[in-house]
Design a protein that fits this description.
Blueprint: H1 4-8, H2 10-17, H3 25-36, E1 47-52, H4 59-71, H5 74-77, E2 78-82, H6 91-96, H7 104-113, E3 117-122, H8 129-141, E4 143-145, E5 151-153, E6 157-163, H9 178-193, H10 195-198, E7 203-206, H11 212-232, E8 237-239, H12 243-251, H13 261-279, E9 285-290, E10 293-297
Parallel strand pairs: 1-6, 1-7, 2-3, 3-6, 8-9
Antiparallel strand pairs: 4-5, 9-10
Helix pairs in contact: 2-4, 11-12, 11-13, 12-13
Domain Clp ATPase C-terminal: 210-296
Domain AAA+ ATPase: 45-189
GO molecular function, one term: ATP binding
C-alpha cells in the first residue's frame, strides 16, 4: 500500500535539511514520487540522478536523506561505491567478483539491501572506462550480472552518481546566471564521462558553492544536533556569543566545503564539556567562543 501522506511529506523534509540548494529539490522530488507511485519505466531503475558540483555542498547528504526517508535504514539500503576504488580494469573483480562462485561487492551489498534501496556511485569520473560500461548497463537495463553468472535485478533501486567535474571552474562563474553555470558544467561532464552516460539520467543537477549565510545555517543545524545529544546525557547547554562564527571558521574548507561541519560542532562542544568536568566547573550554561574554543559560562 502506497503511503500518500509520506510521499507528500518529502519536499518539506528535504527543504528543512538541504541548505543553499533550493533549485535541486523540485527536480529530484517528482522522480522519487514517480518511483514510489509505480510510475517509473518498467525494466529500469526507479530513478537515476547525476549530482555535479564541489565537495561538501550536499550531493551525498541529499542521497542519504532520500534513503533515510524512503527506506528508513540507511546502513542497510544505501549501497555506496567509491569510484576511486574502481580506477583500473582489475577492480572489476572487486565490483563483480572473480571466479564462478564469486558475486563481488555488488552481490554482497545487494543481499544486505534485500534488493531495494539507493546505489550511490561516488565520484563517478574516477571510474575505469569498463566500470562506466557496466554503469551504462545499470542505467539502461536495471540489472547487472556478477561473476557467478547471477543477474541482479536493480529495478527497485534508485541510482545516484556524484561528480566534482568542473568544481574549480565554478569560482570563475560565480556571478553568472545559474543556467549558464549548469550548461558549462554539463558540457565538461559530457566530455569526461561521455555524452551517452549523461543522456541516461532522469535528472542532472549542478550544486552551487555555499555562501556564508548557508554555511551559518548548516553550522546551526549541526550545533543543535550536538546540543540535543549532550542534553540526553544530562548537559543543559545553549549557544551564545560567537559560537556559530567559530564553527564556520573551523568547519568550512575551500576544497571540502562544509563536509567537516558535523565533526567541528561535535569536537568543540565536547571539548567545552570535558574541560568543565576536568576543572570541576558547572557543565550547564551558555557556550561562548573564546580564544578559538568554546567554553561554558554558568
Amino acid at each position: 500500500m502506497v503511503d500518500l501522506e509520506h510521499i507528500r511529506g518529502l519536499p518539506p523534509y528535504l527543504q528543512e535539511r538541504i541548505i543553499g540548494q533550493d533549485h535541486v529539490i523540485p527536480r529530484v522530488v517528482p522522480i522519487i514520487q514517480n518511483g514510489e507511485l509505480g510510475l517509473s519505466d518498467p525494466g529500469r531503475p526507479k530513478g537515476t540522478f547525476l549530482f555535479l558540483g564541489p565537495t561538501g555542498v550536499g550531493k551525498t547528504e541529499i542521497t542519504l536523506l532520500l534513503c533515510e526517508y524512503i527506506f528508513k535504514d540507511v546502513g542497510k539500503h544505501c549501497i555506496r561505491l567509491d569510484m576511486s576504488e574502481y580506477q583500473n580494469q582489475e577492480s572489476l573483480g572487486l565490483l563483480l567478483g572473480q571466479g564462478e562462485h564469486s558475486r563481488g561487492n555488488m552481490g554482497r551489498f545487494y543481499d544486505r539491501a534485500e534488493g531495494r534501496g539507493i546505489i550511490l556511485f561516488d565520484e563517478i569520473e574516477k571510474a575505469h572506462p569498463r566500470v562506466l560500461d557496466i554503469f551504462l548497463q545499470v542505467l539502461d537495463a536495471g540489472r547487472i550480472t556478477v561473476a557467478n553468472g547471477e543477474t541482479l535485478n536493480l529495478c527497485n533501486f534508485y541510482i545516484v552518481a556524484t561528480s566534482n567535474i568542473g568544481a574549480d571552474a565554478l569560482m570563475e562563474l560565480k556571478n553568472s546566471p545559474m543556467a549558464t553555470i549548469e550548461r558549462f558544467i554539463e558540457d565538461l561532464a559530457a566530455a569526461e564521462l561521455r555524452p551517452e552516460v549523461l543522456a541516461r539520467f532522469n535528472v542532472r543537477c549542478v550544486f552551487q558553492k555555499l555562501g556564508y549565510s548557508a554555511q551559518k545555517q548548516i553550522a546551526s543545524i549541526m550545533l543543535n544536533k550536538e546540543l540535543k545529544n549532550l542534553r540526553n546525557k544530562g548537559y543543559e547547554l545553549t549557544a551564545g556569543h560567537g559560537v556559530i562564527d567559530l564553527l564556520v571558521s573551523q568547519g568550512v574548507e575551500p576544497r571540502l566545503g562544509v563536509r567537516r561541519m558535523r565533526t567541528t560542532a561535535e569536537s568543540n562542544c565536547r571539548h567545552a564539556v570535558r574541560e568543565a568536568l576536568m576543572a570541576g566547573r558547572s557543565t550547564s550554561g551558555t557556550l561562548i567562543a573564546e580564544n578559538g574554543h568554546l567554553v561554558i559560562h554558568p
